[in-house]
Specification:
This protein has 149 residues and is mainly alpha-helical. Helices cover 63% and strands 0% of the residues. It contains 8 helices and no strands.
Length: 149
């Protein structure tokens, strides 16, 4: 009987709390809690702070919002702590999540590579905007493929 209780306590210690799971996702996003809350469509960070204080659990709505913006996050893990944080079938690379700092850096890099070609075309009135639009289209195409070539 004592052995079962110690195993249960050990399992509870290994499962991250609701806030720890949210915090892990926020850290991966490299945002503050308030910026993260706004990014996933919450009006303010109060919803997340209520989870941090232990007043609320992670609602299905909050989990869905997070997983819509970060599809590599496993929703079951987010809601319960069971399994792994990252899904096995998650896309990799900066194109995995459009709108993240990595994806924005990729768009800037791709636009910088495209820009010299557009500057020399007389029919191109705004080469910078066109380069960014081309880079965004490339990013969207890569996101649909999960980053595969």
């Amino acid at each position: 009987m004592q052995n079962n209780k110690s195993k249960q306590k050990q399992a509870e210690k290994e499962t991250p709390t609701n806030w720890q799971r949210i915090e892990m996702v926020i850290q991966q996003s490299k945002m503050t809690a308030n910026a993260f809350a706004r990014h996933i469509g919450l009006p303010r960070g109060e919803n997340l702070y209520q989870i941090k204080k232990g007043n609320n659990g992670i609602s299905l709505d909050v989990a869905t919002r997070i997983c819509q913006h970060y599809p590599e996050i496993d929703k079951l893990w987010l809601l319960t702590g069971d399994g792994q944080m990252l899904r096995d079938d998650a896309p990799a690379g900066p194109w995995a999540n459009i709108g993240t700092p990595n994806s924005e850096a990729f768009i800037g890099f791709a636009a910088a590579l495209i820009l010299p070609e557009l500057v020399n075309k007389p029919e191109c009135r705004d080469p910078y905007t066109m380069a960014v639009e081309h880079a965004k289209k490339l990013m969207a195409a890569l996101a649909k493929k999960g980053g595969e070539q």
